[in-house]
Design goal:
Keywords: Acyltransferase, Alginate biosynthesis, Cell membrane, Membrane, Transferase, Transmembrane, Transmembrane helix. The chain is an all-alpha fold and about 475 residues long. It contains 20 helices and two strands. The longest helix is centred in the middle third of the chain and has 37 residues.
Length: about 475
């Protein structure tokens, strides 16, 4: 079940809110949490009910392990932590990475890789990280002691179960414990506003931009060369698409939680307006960035052991962060690029030199866009084709109307009325596509994020966002899945 599907918006969500409020009014906050947990299991099982026991077993197993660890002597606590981490990460590795390891090994041996028939459970990357945090925080005595119902809702709440945000136990568990089951008007209205804005980001912006990004990357996957214009149209469209898609999902999750009085942390804060790559990671998928910093980079030693060790720790963190996104070497290439960017940024800052603000922003955006190529490309060969296109190695294609206005261009470019892999709609000209991308990127680079607008009381966009979202929701041929559902 997708947040952007009509069955969720007009079916599941109203029924859940009504059941939550009724249970809270009749029997109190504990009953309302039971409704929340049952609804979350129904939501999770809507795709494949067979994976519900996996989620339930993971929740019960980790909760029981934490209780045993808390009651154990100090010397045993570490080993209980190891058991929990090995079990959680082992399950994640089996479902997510076994196929990659088998395929890689078969490639080295020159034999055909067997089909393991493994289906990746939705959200396993996210609910595994949630439980890893609780295990580690409990070992450090930083997690609050809670009952099973609060813990199960912390892990399984449908608002963040499938694609985040990754919420800290100490931030969310006390909120579940304090819920009285009432649905307050202020929370409902505020949550609905953020949810609708997120829905508009997904349906109106992200899904429209996908029509420009997908054909270019699909052509590269098929071995077709891309011209300079084609490659940049596809990449600019994808850079904007993934931002609106994932930030839209995060906004919808934040809005859903707020409707029942739970406050999730922000996950995006105008990331493409960052002035350097470190600032980008303080703005992009902020909950994952915080997790990688606190539960991987700092335990590895952080920056406490000199510049060389810091750079190694940065690279390990980003490589593993890339691999977490998917079982493919291209994700490690994406993570490795960002690790390299962070190392270069550290060295640049040591020189004391500073670029003008807009120049620094442009360099950062360019670096991030280039890194999206291996992230989005189907394989490393397609990645190479796309990079060649971005450099103009396969030539330049411009629309006929531009060449007609500037005849001198006939000597340096090939003229076509519509780029063959631009795709979006066959009747849309390249000029129209360029205008759409220019407008979109102008908003991304210059406008404040939606939460800032909402805090300032500028809610006029809600009406338009709601109208467009409703039209797209009911008239779109199908609900396009969120990008991060694949991870």
């Amino acid at each position: 079940m997708l947040f952007n599907s009509s069955v969720f918006v007009v079916g599941f969500l109203p029924l859940f809110l009504a059941g939550f409020a009724l249970a809270g009014w009749c029997w109190g906050g504990r009953a309302a949490l039971v409704v929340l947990l049952v609804a979350s299991l129904v939501f999770y099982g809507w795709w494949r009910p067979v994976f519900v026991p996996l989620l339930v077993g993971s929740i019960i197993g980790n909760f029981g392990l934490v209780r045993v660890m808390r009651r154990s002597r100090a010397r045993w606590r570490f080993w209980w932590l190891v058991v929990g981490l090995v079990t959680d990460l082992g399950l994640l590795a089996w479902f997510k990475y076994a196929g990659l390891l088998v395929a890689t090994g078969a490639g080295w041996l020159g034999v055909r890789a067997p089909d393991l028939g493994i289906v990746l459970p939705l959200g396993i990357s996210f609910f595994t990280f949630q439980q890893v945090m609780y295990l580690v925080d409990s070992y450090r005595d930083e997690a609050l002691v809670c009952g099973f119902l609060d813990y199960a809702c912390f892990v399984g709440f449908f608002a963040h179960l499938l694609a985040g945000p990754i919420v800290r136990p100490r931030e969310i568990v006390p909120q579940f414990a304090a819920l009285d089951g009432r649905v307050r008007r202020d929370d409902l209205v505020a949550g609905l506003e953020v949810f609708l804005l997120g829905l508009a980001k997904k349906l109106v912006l992200a899904d429209s931009l996908a029509r420009f990004a997908d054909p270019g990357f699909r052509a590269a996957a098929g071995g077709h060369s891309l011209s300079l214009v084609e490659a940049w149209v596809a990449l600019l469209a994808y850079g904007a698409q993934i931002y609106f898609d994932f930030s839209g999902y995060s906004d919808m999750a934040i809005g859903l939680a707020r409707m029942v009085g739970v406050r999730f942390p922000l996950n995006f804060r105008s990331p493409y307006q960052a002035r350097d790559i470190a600032d980008f990671w303080r703005r992009w998928n902020m909950t994952l960035s915080g997790f990688l910093r606190d539960y991987l980079y700092i335990p590895l030693g952080g920056n406490r052991h000199g510049a060389v060790r810091r750079n190694v720790n940065l690279m390990i963190t980003m490589l593993l962060g890339g691999l977490w996104h998917g079982a493919a070497w291209r994700f490690m290439a994406w993570g490795g690029l960002h690790g390299l960017y962070l190392i270069v940024n550290q060295q640049w800052r040591r020189t004391g030199w500073r670029l003008p603000a807009r120049v620094a922003q442009a360099v950062t955006v360019l670096a991030v866009l280039i890194a999206w190529v291996p992230f989005r490309a189907d394989n490393l060969r397609a990645c190479w084709i796309m990079l060649r296109g971005l450099c103009g190695a396969a030539g330049v294609l411009l629309p006929a109307m531009i060449v007609k206005a500037l005849p001198i261009l006939r000597h340096v470019v090939t003229s076509v009325p519509v780029l063959p892999y631009l795709g979006a709609a066959r009747t849309m000209s390249v000029v129209q596509a360029a205008a759409l991308l220019a407008l979109t990127w102008g908003i991304i680079l210059l406008a404040p994020d939606i939460h800032t607008l909402r805090e300032r009381g500028r809610n006029a966009a809600l009406v338009a966002g709601f109208a467009f979202s409703v039209q797209a929701l009911f008239f779109a041929p199908f609900a396009r899945p969120f990008i991060y559902f694949q991870f």
